[in-house]
Design goal:
Blueprint: E1 3-10, H1 16-19, E2 20-27, E3 34-43, H2 46-53, E4 64-65, E5 71-77, E6 89-92, E7 102-106, E8 110-113, H3 119-122, H4 128-135, E9 147-150, H5 156-168, E10 171-176, H6 182-187, E11 192-195, H7 198-208, E12 213-218, H8 222-230, E13 237-240, H9 253-257, E14 262-265, H10 268-274, H11 277-293, E15 300-304, H12 309-316, E16 324-328
Parallel strand pairs: 9-10, 9-12, 10-11, 12-13, 13-14, 15-16
Antiparallel strand pairs: 1-2, 1-4, 3-5, 3-7, 3-16, 5-6, 6-8
């Protein structure tokens, strides 16, 4: 039995909404040691946009099927596969070609997640929630009276940081770029939500008072990164995990000399490659529980069919989004 497989192909780097195209091919059933997964939903992440532009840290050889994240249902297993069964819902853990109807892979390249976790949320489990968990486990325990601070707080990572911090009993200061985002983030559990400017910074400092600020999480760079860095207490840690503002991080000498700040970078891919599989399973089990219980939100802006890939990518690059843009591979599938 052959399966008709639609996949998103990148043939030449450029404007992201013109660089990707949809093509079809036939795919065979799994062979020995393989499983075949039917993709349900995939999100369009900043990393995917950067790959389409040719600006990511690691780039595929072209032409390439792309997609850094997604989930689906196992529809067939080859001989000698015991740990994964047909009907299991899985998360693509070490694949970068998720934007296709069917993915043929090994059991070690996926991780089982609860069947009752809706696919539109399951597909966003790998990157943003896990990144948030790692950011909050940097080796420094946050004092009960302490705070953490983050920019891009309305992002998927930002929402997950708020949820996980609440579970850990940690308070958050959250910077956003649009006023209409303040109320929803307060409703999601953010302790302080202010505009990402000097006025917002001063308002946050007034509310924090003399309490320590021990961890700053940066996804923007430029002045925004410096703003949250300046709020850190002596010996605090500043972690960069993204560069949405596409501006470099310029660190004043005084931050290092007089405040003794620690500057770090964090990339989820490295953790997935080096961590013990049991630790990875424990983390994703915890994150699945938070999503299922409604304690952690991953906002969705819109959902598109793969045939509308250009429109979907265009929407994913717009600042007015209210959440993640998804591709629904359940639509218009034929075998």
């Amino acid at each position: 039995m052959l399966y008709n497989n639609r996949k998103i192909i990148l043939e030449k780097y450029g404007e992201p909404w013109t660089a990707a195209s949809l093509k079809s091919e036939s795919i065979s059933p799994p062979t020995k040691g393989e499983i075949l997964v039917k993709t349900s939903f995939v999100p369009i992440n900043p990393a995917d946009i950067n790959i389409l532009e040719g600006r990511y840290g690691t780039l595929p050889a072209l032409p390439a099927t792309i997609g850094t994240e997604g989930s689906g249902e196992v529809i067939a297993t080859g001989p000698d596969v015991a740990e994964i069964r047909e009907g299991d819902q899985v998360l693509y853990l070490s694949r970068t070609d998720c934007w296709q109807d069917y993915v043929s892979c090994t059991a070690k390249q996926v991780i089982k997640i609860p069947k009752n976790l809706p696919g539109k949320f399951a597909c966003m489990l790998k990157i943003n929630p896990a990144t948030a968990w790692l950011l909050l486990h940097q080796g420094n325990s946050i004092l009960p009276e302490g705070w953490i601070i983050q920019n891009a707080a309305n992002s998927g990572v930002g929402h997950a940081v708020i949820a996980i911090a609440r579970k850990l009993g940690v308070r958050t200061v959250n910077f956003v770029r649009r006023k209409e985002l303040i109320k929803p983030l307060l409703g999601a559990g953010g302790n302080i939500v202010v505009m990402d400017n000097d006025e917002g910074k001063n308002a946050a400092i007034e509310q924090i008072g003399d309490a320590p600020v021990e961890l700053a999480l940066n996804a923007v760079g430029g002045e925004s990164a410096l703003r949250i860095m300046s709020m850190l207490s002596e010996g605090g840690t500043h972690v960069t995990y993204g560069a949405m503002g596409k501006r470099p991080l310029k660190v004043p000498n005084s931050m290092l000399i007089f405040k003794n700040l620690k500057l770090k970078g964090m990339w989820l891919t490295k953790w997935l490659k080096s961590a013990d599989p049991r630790e990875i399973k424990e983390v994703y089990d915890l994150l699945s529980e938070l999503l299922l219980s409604g304690q952690m939100l991953q906002p969705i802006d819109s959902v598109y069919s793969p045939e509308n890939i250009s429109l979907a990518i265009k929407r994913a690059t717009e600042n007015s989004r209210s959440g993640k843009v998804l591709l629904d591979f359940r639509l218009n599938v034929s075998q």
